[in-house]
Amino acid sequence: MTHNTPVKIVLLAAAFAGLAACASAPPEQGPSKVATTETQQWMDKIKVTSAPDEIVLASHATGLSANQGSALEALVGRWLDAEGRELVVTAPNSAGAMATQIRDRLITLGAPGARVRVVGFNPAGPEDNTIRVGFLRYEAQPLKCGERWENLAATRNNTAYENFGCAMAANIAAQVANPEDLIRPRDTTPIDAGRRDTVLGKYRKGETTSAAKDDQASGAISKAIQ
User: Fold this and answer.
1) Burial 46-82 (b: 16+ CB within 10 A, else e)
2) Exposure of 135 by Cβ count < 10 A (0-12 exposed, 13-18 middle, 19+ buried)?
C-alpha cells in the first residue's frame, strides 16, 4: 500500500457517509414556497373585519309579537343582502318554545333550515332572559393608495413600482359583495341528484344528454319589425 491509500479510504468513507445522509433525509413536506407577486402582496393587505348583526327579543309566553316579527323580517333581509353563512338564535333554555317559533319564522321568511341554528343557555340572572338572533357581517377595510409615489418612468431595473397593484386591490375591497369571500371559499352547494341520474341514464343508453332546445335557444335572428 502507498502512502496515498489512507487518504483514499478517508475520502471513500466520507462519500459513503454523504450518500447515506442524503438517503435518510426526509423529503420536504408541504407545497413549495413560491414568492407572491406584487398584486398578491396588496391583496394580502386587505383587512376583513367581522361584527355581529343581531336583534334582542324579549321572551313572551304567548310567542312572537307583531313588532318582533317585523324585526325578524328586517334581519333576514339584511342577512340575504350580506350573503351571511348562518343565522343563530341564542335563547334561554326556558324559552325553547319561543326559540322554535323564531326558527320557523326565519325559515318562512326565506332562510334555509340548514342555516338556522338554535343555541340554548342557562341565564345567570333576570337580565339574561332575552333572545338574541343574528349573524356575522363582514366588512373589507379600504386600502390607502398613493401615499408615496416614485418615478414611474424609472424602468431600468424592470421592477414594479411601490404602489403597483394597490388600486386593483382597493377596487376589489370596495366592490366585493361579500367580503368573507376574501377570507375563505364558499361552501359548495348540494348536487342535483335527479338531474345527474337523468343525464347518466341517457348517457348509458347512448342518447343525447343535453336538454332539448326551444325557439328562444335556436340562435335565429328575429325578423320582427321593431
Assistant:
1) beeeeeeebeebebeeeebeeebbebbeebbeebeeb
2) buried
Range of the domain at 55: 50-140
Residue pLDDT, tens place only, 178-225: 888 888 877 777 788 888 888 888 899 888 888 777 666 666 665 655
Query: What is the arithmetic mean of pLDDT over 129-157?
Result: 82
All 3 cell numbers of residue 72? 325578524
Which domain CATH number covers 116? 3.30.1330.60
Question: Side by side, which strands form the sheet with 48-58?
Answer: 48-58, 130-140, 87-92, 116-121
Q: Has residue 211 been placed in a domain?
A: no
Q: What is the pTM of this model?
A: 0.59
Tens of pLDDT, residues 72-125: 999 999 999 888 889 999 999 988 899 999 999 999 999 999 999 999 988 887
Q: Count the domains in the chain.
A: 1
